Amino acid sequence: MTDQTPVSYAGPERVLSGVQPSGALHLGNYLGALVKFARLQHEIDTFIFVADMHAITVWQDPALLAGQTREIAAAYLASGLDPAKATIFPQSAVPEHAELAWIFNCVARLGWLDRMTQFKEKSGKHKERSSVGLYTYPVLQAADILIYKATKVPVGEDQKQHLELTRDIAQKFNHDFEAPGFFPLPEPLIQGPGARIMSLRDGQAKMSKSDASDLSRINLTDDADAIAAKIRKARTDPEALPDTLEALALRPEADNLVGIFAALGGESKAEVLARFAGQGFGVFKPALADLAVSALSPVSEAMRRYLDDPAEIDRILGAGALKAREVASQTVAEVKARVGFWGA
Ligand code: TYM
User: Fold this and answer.
1) Alpha carbon nearest to ligand 1 atom 34, residue
2) For 86-234, where are the alpha helices, taking DSSP H only?
3) Selected catalytic residue, list 85, 160, 172, 209
4) 104 closest CA partner among 142, 55, 137
5) Residues 139-179: pLDDT tens digits?
């Protein structure tokens, strides 16, 4: 019997993730992604980028895009990312991402991309009018991750399918080019109550930058009054909070608010219920508003401070891009040699 176990990746652990500069950041981005970045940088070599090449898969005003990129960088810094620890850079400043994405376009199969639910959601009824980039977007995401041979990818739940595709591409590349263990099979870091923050207006819909109602989300730039008002107006049911997670799961809006409370306070939902079971939203919402304001105000203040000094942000992004390119160009050189390109 032959041993069919694939040779596993033996390189060092590395974290990589990114956020698109395509609109105001909200609480879902913060709890699903940003807070995890800041935590992980103390444990593992961490690369965090601004996904501006992903952002242009839908129209972005050229006059605003660089400013939006600085805003995401400011949010990273404000939520605790330290450029002395983590490598922070704009995706478009490392052109090797696009080079590897092309090669991966030739590894990934159409059938794999046809299954991607995010393309179906984003293209809606007008698939034929979507950009080709929107369709092949998850392949660029695989290149973002694998170019750094990242092993861990902190993301919200909505990115799970893209991570599965990344693993499929890594596995097929390793197999087709007889390079066992060349790319790692990266693991998504999704767990925790912040992984899927829902709209404040509809417990069945994800909190999203593109929701028409600003009341559906808490933006990182909202002031204390706006945060409190949005929580006060959040949709709920008339019943008191239950004492079990099973009962909570049957009430999506209540479940979401308890999840937000847990994620903001670094607790589990069970711990929050242990304190608030039997209480109505008249008690729970003001407590949640206080917690949200005290957790988010320092972040939005720090973001404003960083944005007052765009030259410093540009310096950090430029230095990060140089560091990132060192790693990325090495991987692309190795990949080109494996593929058999002339001169590689
Ligand atoms: P983006 O810009 O849509 O979102 C950034 C991060 O925020 C998370 N997120 C949420 N988490 C919890 N609840 C929510 N309601 C919520 N909404 C968004 C997302 O899961 C994500 O982690 N394709 C990515 C960007 C990207 C990327 C990558 C990420 C490009 N290349 C490589 C990781 C690795 C995206 O569009 O994220």
Assistant:
1) 17
2) 96-105, 110-114, 117-123, 132-146, 160-176, 224-233
3) 209
4) 142
5) 999 999 999 999 999 999 999 999 999 999 999 999 999 99
The superfamily (CATH) of domain 14-196+309-339 is HUPs (3.40.50.620)
Fold of 214-305: Tyrosyl-Transfer RNA Synthetase (1.10.240)
7: pLDDT confidence band, cut at 50, 70 and 90?
Answer: confident
**Domain residue ranges in the chain:** 14-196+309-339, 214-305
Q: How many whole angstroms from 151 Cα to the centroid of ligand 1?
A: 17
Residues 43-98: tens digit of each pLDDT: 999 999 999 999 999 999 999 999 999 999 999 999 999 999 999 999 999 999 99
> Choosing from 85, 122, 285, 323, which is the catalytic residue?
122
Distance 154 CA to ligand 1 centre (A): 9
Residue 152 annotated as catalytic: no
Token pair in block for residue 323: 């560091």
User: If we measure between CA atoms, which residue out of 69, 91, 90 comes closest to residue 317?
Assistant: 90
Rounded to the nearest angstrom, the distance between the alpha carbon of 51 and the centre of ligand 1 is: 10
Tell how far the Cα of 187 is from the centroid of ligand 1, in angstroms: 15
Nearest atom, ligand 1, residue 29 CA? 7
Judged by phi (left if over 0) then psi (alpha if -120 to 50, else beta), residue 183 lies in beta
Residue 125: its pLDDT value, please?
84
Q: Does 209 participate in catalysis according to the annotation?
A: yes
Sheet containing 152-154: order of strands: 86-90, 45-50, 14-19, 152-154, 187-189
- Reference 79, options 17, 138, 146; nearest CA is 17
CA 245 to chain centre: 26
